[in-house]
Design a protein that fits this description.
Largest sheet: 6 strands, antiparallel, barrel
Strand order of the largest sheet: 2-3-4-7-6-5
Strand content: 15-25%
Number of strands: 17
CATH topology of the largest domain: Thrombin, subunit H
CATH architecture of the largest domain: Beta Barrel
Radius of gyration: 28 Å
Helix content: 25-40%
CATH class of the largest domain: Mainly Beta
CATH superfamily of the largest domain: predicted glycosyltransferase like domains
Number of helices: 18
Length: 572
């Protein structure tokens, strides 16, 4: 398993490319096979954990090597050595007769020479080249280049070999080393006992008999990943400091168990990259449990729910559905954040009407205008109407400080679940004193964020098609669907009104079409783009960030808080 996971990590991770003009040279020494004199190699790419080099010489996998790196510049030359192990190889597509080798380097400290070398190397980049590399390094997605077919084949080949050759026990034991964690746990569903049971584990204690049980079952029942890091003062931190868990599937892609890793050796949380790695691990484990059955039916029935929020079967839509089904029966207060038109109200009503509270009363308080706010507070002493059930509070962020205190005193005396909605982020307003801390932590036992529609490119076309089908069926029309231009407009438009605007625009397009043609969307003209004369790449990057930013997030408050901590650290 080490080979396939290391291959995958090399393939996914970003390394700085080296070119001939960089004048970086390297010699390699074998420390295992005593192969004699050093051999010159050409480094293709490098980062703090590994490097790729090309050579016509043969190096077996597992060989310990020492690599001497040096530069030939007029000023500021480097000359240092690195130690590591060769963990992969494949034929070079660009250099005939040469092989690309991957070296896993020994762990580097913050003050390592390699760390300073890479910083110096980046200082020689042009602005355009630096921005391009930062973009690629920050992205978790991995775009496959046209010249990477051999590398991709090498990755698939090593994974298939692990599928077929490595016993499950050996495979799982390697996880501790590969993920640098203390223990692994594999849980599978047992039909006889009607529950998850520990199938394989490196730990003496069964994780299902600890406070982590609910977290494991949440992953299993809701088909989601969990990356948990317990706070320093948490009483459960003695045994489990960090947890990374992911569902395991059978041949029919039904969830049959959970693979969990606990306690990183560093004590830090598992990284986003390790989250992507555990997905690969789950797929490999699935090969060994492909014939297992499951008692869970994940076809959640939302047909009776009249909400655009639940349309679609892509990742974001499914996450919203799973979160809603997880929260509908809990008694804790829920805070829902999202831009205008994101259908927060419909999600709040679903939480009440589909759960155990549906037989109890539902009260709706709307603070979207000053008149409605004043009307409520004039009658706030009359709380006889508020008995057991659910209160939905819309736009709670519009209250001033004195009104927030009055509302807190009112809510804490009620025996009702509170679902609060806001198109403004409140947490950083708490930090600045603009929003009551007591009220915020009372209403936000659970925090749920609905992303804006423009950031749901994988969902938006499917949602639009479903809405179009519904609207034309209401009117007895038979349209041909969106043409190429309409599809492009849907993807490129900013959708400031989110799902509400999407539904309205499609409805108007269907009415205009009169059932005879493809619907034409008359979308509002967006502001004409200013074209930068210089630094075009940086300008386009910033423009994209602004375009896709979530208007419900108070970025200025985030910046002020960050600057506050920086100033505090400097003064200390």
């Amino acid at each position: 398993m080490k080979n396939s996971l290391l291959n995958y990590q090399f393939f996914k991770s970003y390394r700085l490319p080296l070119e001939k003009n960089d004048k970086v040279y390297a010699d390699i020494f074998s420390t295992t096979f005593n192969s004699g004199a050093c051999r010159q190699i050409e480094i293709e790419s490098i980062n703090l954990s590994g490097l790729n080099f090309t050579s016509k010489s043969y190096f077996p996998h597992g060989e310990d090597v020492e690599i001497q790196i040096y530069t030939k510049r007029i000023f500021n030359n480097w000359d240092f050595s690195l130690k590591g192990k060769i963990v992969r190889s494949f034929i070079s597509e660009s250099k005939k007769g040469e092989v690309v080798y991957g070296v896993l380097l020994e762990r580097q400290s913050k003050d390592s020479v390699l760390n300073y070398f890479l910083k110096d190397f980046l200082n020689h980049y042009s602005e355009t080249k630096l921005i391009k590399n930062i973009q690629m390094a920050c992205s978790l997605s991995r775009t496959v280049g046209a010249g990477e077919s051999v590398e991709l084949f090498s990755l698939f080949n090593s994974i298939i070999q692990d599928f077929q050759e490595l016993p499950l026990d050996n495979f799982l034991q390697d996880l501790q080393t590969s993920f640098r964690c203390e223990n692994y746990h594999l849980f599978l569903y047992n039909h006889t006992k009607n529950k998850l049971v520990s199938y394989r584990s490196s730990a003496k204690e069964n994780l299902l008999k600890t406070d982590m049980k609910n977290n494991i079952y949440m992953v299993y029942e809701n088909n989601v990943i969990s990356n948990l890091s317990l706070a320093e003062n948490d009483i459960n931190r003695e045994k489990t400091k960090t947890l990374l868990a992911y569902p395991v599937y059978n041949l029919k892609h039904n969830v049959v168990g959970v693979i969990a890793l606990t306690n990183t050796t560093s004590g830090n949380a598992f990284t986003a990259f390790q989250e992507s790695c555990i997905r690969l691990i789950s797929q490999i484990i699935s090969y060994h449990v492909k014939d297992f059955a499951t008692n869970i039916n994940f076809e959640i029935n939302h047909k009776d729910i009249k909400s655009d929020l639940f349309l679609g079967q892509n990742r974001t839509s499914l996450e919203i559905k799973n979160s809603a089904d997880l929260l509908r029966n809990i008694t804790k207060n829920v805070f829902i954040l999202g831009e205008q038109g994101s259908r927060k109200n419909e999600l709040a009503k679903y939480l009440h009407e589909s759960g155990k509270f549906k037989s109890e009363q539902l009260r709706y308080i709307n603070f979207d205008s000053p008149d409605k706010i004043n009307t409520f507070f004039e009658s706030i002493d009359d709380n006889e109407l508020f008995e057991k059930g659910t209160i939905i509070i819309n736009e709670i962020g519009n209250l001033n400080h004195s009104q927030q205190i009055k509302l807190y005193d009112f809510l804490k005396n009620l025996n009702m679940r509170v679902i609060s909605l806001s198109s403004k982020e409140l947490y950083h307003r708490v930090k600045t004193g603009a929003f009551s801390k007591k009220l915020y932590f009372y209403i936000a036992d659970i925090y749920l964020h609905i992303p804006p529609l423009r950031n749901r490119k994988n969902d938006i076309l499917e949602i639009a098609d479903i809405i179009l089908s519904e609207e034309q069926n209401k009117r007895g029309h038979k349209l041909t669907g969106f043409d190429e231009q309409a599809t492009r407009n849907i993807l490129e438009y900013n959708w400031p009104g989110n799902l509400t605007e999407l539904r309205n625009e499609i409805k108007k397009a269907v009415i205009r079409s009169n059932g005879k043609e493809s619907p034409v969307l008359n979308l509002r003209k967006q502001q004409s783009d200013y074209k930068a004369q210089k630094n075009k790449l940086l300008f386009n990057l910033l423009k994209s960030i602004v375009k896709h930013s979530d208007k419900s997030i108070d970025y200025q408050a985030h910046t002020e808080t960050l600057n506050y901590y920086i100033r505090a650290k400097k003064s200390a």
